[in-house]
Automatic annotation (TrEMBL):
<dbReference type="InterPro" id="IPR035439">
    <property type="entry name" value="UPF0145_dom_sf"/>
</dbReference>
<comment type="similarity">
    <text>Belongs to the UPF0145 family.</text>
</comment>
<dbReference type="InterPro" id="IPR002765">
    <property type="entry name" value="UPF0145_YbjQ-like"/>
</dbReference>
<protein>
    <recommendedName>
        <fullName>UPF0145 protein B1H19_23395</fullName>
    </recommendedName>
</protein>
<dbReference type="Pfam" id="PF01906">
    <property type="entry name" value="YbjQ_1"/>
</dbReference>
Length: 122
C-alpha cells in the first residue's frame, strides 16, 4: 500500500500523511527532513466577543468561537502540509497544535511536527 492510499480521508492532503504518533504501521522512516510548522493568527471581532460574554453568563457552547477555532486550526494544518510537501516530505510525525493568546488581540495557532519521507516496509 502506498502513502497515497493511506491518506485517512484527507483527499487534499493525501500525498502527505499527518499522524500524532512516532511511526506509521507498515512504513519505515527513510529520511528525516526536520521540523515543519503552519502558523496563523486570528483576531477576534467585537460581535463574537460580546456574544461570548453573554453566553458565558448563561452557559453553553460558544458556537461562533468554536467555528473560528476549527477554521483556524485547519488553516494552520494546511500550511504545515504545504511546508512539508515543499521540502519533499510525504509524512509528518508527532503532529501537535499549540494555541496561545497573541498580545491580547487574537489567537495564535501553530501546527507542528517532524517532516519525514516514509517508505513501505518490504
Amino acid at each position: 500500500m502506498g502513502i497515497e492510499e493511506y491518506g485517512g480521508g484527507q483527499p487534499s492532503q493525501a500525498d502527505v500523511l499527518v499522524v500524532t504518533t512516532n511511526d506509521v504501521p507498515g512504513f519505515h522512516v527513510d529520511r528525516v527532513i526536520g521540523e515543519v510548522f503552519g502558523l496563523t493568527v486570528r483576531s477576534r471581532h467585537l460581535g463574537s466577543q460580546i456574544g461570548a460574554g453573554l453566553k458565558s453568563m448563561i452557559g453553553g457552547e460558544l458556537r461562533g468561537l468554536t467555528k473560528t477555532l476549527v477554521e483556524t486550526r485547519n488553516q494552520a494544518m494546511e500550511r504545515l502540509v504545504e511546508q512539508a510537501r515543499s521540502r519533499g516530505a510525504n509524512g509528518v510525525l508527532m503532529f501537535r497544535f499549540d494555541v496561545t493568546e497573541a498580545a491580547d488581540v487574537g489567537t495564535e495557532v501553530c501546527a507542528y511536527g517532524t517532516a519525514v519521507v516514509l517508505a513501505p516496509m518490504s
